[in-house]
Each structure stands twice: as C-alpha cells, then as structure tokens.
Design a protein that fits this description.
47% of the residues lie in helices and 9% in strands. It is built from 20 helices and 15 strands.
C-alpha cells in the first residue's frame, strides 16, 4: 500500500494548540516563555554508562528502534515479528541483523504512528535533532537513514554534547539497590559539568517469592559488604545502600507495584516472613504482605534521609508470556489494570503523610482514579504529590485529561511537574516540548474563559515546565531555603 513519497516533513508552530483563536493565542504566548527553560528529568531509564563512556551512538536502527518498546509494540500489534525488528531473543532464535532492513521495515509501517504521541515525538526528533525534512516512509527510508547516520558520526552527536544541546539541568537514572554505580562515579571523576544522579530502586529484593530472589539478595549483600541473615541485617543493608546512593547525588527512590497496598506488620511477623523467604518457602501471598510492609519501611527511611519516594502502580508486567519467554521483560506487554489508592495507602499516609520531611509521588495508569481518589488525596496530605500522566497516557489527550481532572481539586502545586520516564535519550527534548505545549494550551483555556489571568498563567506555566520538578525532587534546595525540610513557596511559585 502506497502512503505517499517524498512529502515534506513540517512541524507546525502551533501544533497541539486549540483551534479556538482565543485559547491558541494565550497558549502560544505561554509556550514561548517556557519552551527554552532547562529540562529537569527526575525519573527515567537512560543508562548512566552512556554518558560516562561518551562513545558515538550506534547506527540509527540500533539507537532508535531496537531498544524502544513504544515503537516495536505497535508494529508487533500489526503482525510485524519482533525478530524482523532485530529485538534480541533469549532463546537463541535468530533475529534480523541488517540495520538497513530493520529501518526499512520500520519506515514501511511508520504510518501506524499517525495521531499517536510516539509519532509526535519521532517526527520532532527527525526534524529538530537530525534535520530531516521529508516524511519517513518506504521510499525515503534510505535517505533518512543515511542522514541520521551521518549526523551520529560527528562529535556534536556524542551523548554529552547532546545532553548540553538539550539543555538538560539534571538527569536521574533508575538503578537496582545492588548497583555499584560505577558509571556515576566515573562521571563524577571525569570533571564533566553535567548532573546525572542515581535513583534507588529496591523492588527486586522485596519480591521474596520470585525465583531469582536469592540471587538478588546475594547481590545486595555483596554490594553492602556484609551478610544478610535476618530482617534486621536486611534493613541495615538497605539503609547503607541508600546512604551510598545519596553520596552520589540521589534524591529519590522508586518503587513499581501492581497494587499500591501498604500495611505494617508486627516485628515478629515481619521477621518470620523474611526467615520463611530465606528457607525458600515464601508464597505469593507472603510476598504481597512483605511488599506492603516494606513500602512503609521505605517511607520511614525517607523521613530519616530525605529521599523522595516514588510509587508507580497499576501495570501488570509482561502480560504476553510467549513474548516474555522469548525476548525477556519490558517488550511492550505491560498492561494497565484497575487500581485503588484510598484504602491501599491508608496505613502509609496515616503514618507519614502529615510529616513535613516526607514526599511521596504517585503515578498511575488508571485514569479513573484522577478525580475520584488521587486529586482529593493530594489536595489534603502535605506529603503527597501527583506524578504526571504515565506511560500510555503521557500523550496529548492523556495530559489534557489529567489537568482537567486533577487541577480543580489539587491545584497544580500538588503535582510534580513533568518527567519523561524514558530509555530513549534522543527523545527527551521532544517529550518535554509536547508537555510544555499541552500545559500551555490547558492554561490558555483557563485564560480564555477568564478563570485565571495571563499573569497568573505565566507563573503556573513556568512552574509546570520547570520549577515543580526541581522542588518536588529537591534538586534546588540549599539548607537555608528549607521550611521543615521542604522548599519554601513564594509569590505563587517555587523559591529559588
């Protein structure tokens, strides 16, 4: 099927803005004031080793297609085998090795991304980063590939040079509790001025019924430098690792759960659960209780050491078992499920939700919870912030729905700004740009309806694009600017 050849690629200056001229005019003015602000990236999955080594990127297919599940999940849904896209297999199944064939196959199916956020990000990358001026399709695949490959071979497209070009102020990675953080140490020792910080993610050692739990526990013990023989030594190892992460700039922890269930166990019950796991006798029900208890323990530790706690809930991981078995985890088959927060978080929030030293950022894939649960919770508990629309919903319409459902109850200052949550380093500016345009459009609508005036909208737009992420994740706060452990808010914005 022919879908057009050699048509120009054009990014309209007013893309994503409302067709109503009153809204569009206000949105355009607000966006112009935020478009060039530095990028604060408090949560994502870019590998710190990428920036530590600062090697040239590989060819276009290996950089932009093979590692990006946003791309290959859509193609897979339309019958394109993952093998044909070069996605590495676990079981030895041969996969396509010719990068031009992979790229051509992607280009032949690029029409599938019309109207999707992935299409918006990818067009932005092609146009703004790589200077491509023709639409990608089967007929332009080779010329576009050659143009990107030529750019990637230049010093200006090394990772650190792009970090600086993107105007990134801080980039947070996500790292296992047992990670050596050698790449972070190498970055610090290199003298490079870019700020890349780790994030402490201990999920693997909380899953006591998982087949690989003992291996994960051994890795934690090795990183800690001491044996883990009971719950007390386990908690001590976690506290020590948190201190190590903080020494290399960490400001946050991250936790991914299907259900955000929290419940405190008695010391004896918690200790017995851990001993059962050490014997290899832990069940799925035991793991659920243990994870619920450990989330409260993580909140307690955050009160003590100041690390912001992030909780991502509602993704049923690796739903397609055949794909997971053949290609491994994170291959586009993590599917949202209905999620409940009000009852599940009762124990954690009653224990620490009123403590000014604690910050908890909540993320969900279940949009139905925005107005019913999350906005009322964040509009009450001082410790709570709402993370931006996550994953499948970090899109034009998803972001807009989020703002409409959350703002009236929680305002914008109980939200955490934007984060890109991506492994695709080159897409970071495109994702932030889309978010800034959508937020400008939302605020422009409030201005057009005279809910707020343009001056207030300017302050709010800057907060959403830049300041709230810095404040929430404590990136900008010298000791003298804290009120009971929190940054002070002044003049309707964040103290700097």
């Amino acid at each position: 099927m022919r879908r057009g050849t050699s048509q120009p690629l054009v990014l309209h200056d007013d893309r994503f803005f409302d067709a109503n001229p009153s809204v569009r005019t206000a949105a355009r003015a607000l966006y112009e004031e935020t478009r060039d602000l530095p990028l604060v990236c408090p949560h994502g999955h870019v590998d710190a080793a990428l920036l530590a080594a600062d090697d040239a990127f590989p060819e276009p297919a290996a950089l932009l297609i093979v590692p990006d599940h946003y791309i290959f999940r859509m193609l897979y849904s339309r019958g394109v085998p993952l093998e044909s896209l070069g996605v590495p297999s676990r079981d030895g199944t041969p996969v396509e090795q010719d990068p031009r064939r992979i790229w051509k196959r992607f280009a032949e199916h690029y029409y599938l991304f019309r109207g999707t956020p992935t299409g918006a990000w990818f067009d932005h990358e092609l146009y703004d980063l790589f200077g491509v001026r023709v639409k990608l399709d089967a007929d332009t695949a080779d010329v576009v590939y050659d143009q990107i490959a030529e750019r990637l071979a230049t010093p200006e497209f090394r990772p650190r040079a792009l970090y600086e070009r993107f105007n990134i102020e801080v980039l947070a990675t996500t790292d296992k509790a047992s990670d050596s953080l050698d790449a972070h140490q190498a970055l610090r020792d290199s003298g490079w001025s870019g700020r890349v910080v780790p994030t402490f993610r201990p999920d693997a050692v909380f899953r006591i019924a998982a087949p690989d739990w003992r291996a994960e526990l051994s890795a934690l013990a090795a990183a800690h430098g001491g044996p883990i023989t009971d719950l007390s030594s386990f908690l001590g190892a976690l506290q020590e690792r948190r201190r190590f992460f903080r020494s290399l700039g960490a400001t946050a922890t991250d936790h991914a759960v299907v259900e955000p269930y929290t419940a405190r166990l008695s010391p004896s019950d918690a200790d017995e659960l851990f001993r059962r796991a050490l014997r290899g006798d832990a069940t799925a029900a035991d793991q659920m209780r243990f994870e619920a208890h450990m989330l409260i323990e993580m909140a307690r530790m955050s009160v003590d050491d100041g690390l912001v706690m992030q909780l991502h809930a509602g993704a049923l991981r690796d739903h397609n078992r055949a794909v997971a078995e053949q290609f491994g985890a994170d291959k586009g088959a993590d599917i949202p499920v209905q999620t409940e927060f009000t009852r599940n978080l009762t124990e954690l929030l009653n224990a620490y939700g009123n403590d000014p030293r604690f910050t908890l950022v909540l993320f969900t894939l279940d949009e139905s919870t925005y107005a019913r649960e999350l906005a009322p919770l964040a509009g009450h508990y001082p410790a709570l912030r709402l993370g931006p629309p996550w994953w499948f919903h970090d899109s034009i319409e998803g972001m807009t729905r989020y703002r409409h459902q959350v703002t009236e109850t929680a305002g914008i200052y109980n939200t955490a700004g934007f984060n890109d949550d991506t492994r695709a380093f080159c897409s970071i500016p495109a994702r932030h740009d889309l978010s800034r345009r959508v937020d400008a459009n939302f605020l422009g609508g409030l201005v057009a309806r005279h809910v707020i005036d343009l001056d207030d909208a300017r302050v709010m737009a800057r907060a959403l694009a830049y300041e709230l992420a810095r404040e929430t994740y404590r990136f900008q706060t010298p000791a003298h600017s804290l009120d009971n452990g929190r940054p002070r808010l002044v003049s309707g914005g964040v103290s700097r």
